[in-house]
Amino acid sequence: MSQTAGLRWHHAVLKRTLDVVVSAIGLLLCGWLILLAFLVATVDTRRLGFFTQKRVGRGGELFSIIKIRTMRDIPGITTTVTRRGDPRITRIGRLLRRSRIDELPQLINVLVGHMSLVGPRPDVPGFADRLKGEDRVVLAVRPGITGPATLRFRDEEEELAAQPDPDAYNAAVIFPEKVRLNREYVTRYSLRGDLQYLLWTVWPLSTPRDRHRRTCSNTRPSARSGHPDR
After folding, report:
1. pLDDT tens, 55-104?
2. What is the rounded end-to-end Cα distance, in angstroms, of the chain?
3. Domains of the chain, residue spans
4. What is the sign of the dihedral through the CA atoms of 40, 87, 201 and 58?
């Protein structure tokens, strides 16, 4: 069976076409909002309003993800896990994260081919290195802005905040479940599925997230990824 980037060739072509068309339109429509958010974040954090970080992309290749900066550095806090009430998140940054405006610059990553609209969220090298055996199939596709794991853990910061050891819970529960969901996404890929995930992202519905939440609860212990999005 001929495949491209882990997908059947026609799926890969259709998926990339959708990515280019939607990201180009999105940037045209939201360019002014990205610029405004960049300026506000620059003043708010007193650093460059764009936050870039190396992430693992398709085939294990590194790329620089682009987001609006929502966090400031605080000496003594080195954890890579972000939870609700994290003092590094500024007041305006919290608003940007809640509205998902901080994610909009990733449309640039999609347009240039580093990412896809839908797919596994890109991790930092330390977490991606944990992928073994069949789990490495998640690296066969471009990472996405949204996807099944993103929707299942939409409230990840709140879930982590309820844990006595967020780092351990992330590593033991959240990360493995994200890998399972992402592996299932790749092996059962369909364009219709991508369209559904996009719909559920812009118009949140309870059904898919509740289904993923029930599935996860049934697999514990078997966990937001190991990186802070600044």
Report:
1. 999 999 999 999 999 988 777 665 656 666 678 889 999 999 989 999 99
2. 41
3. 3-217
4. positive
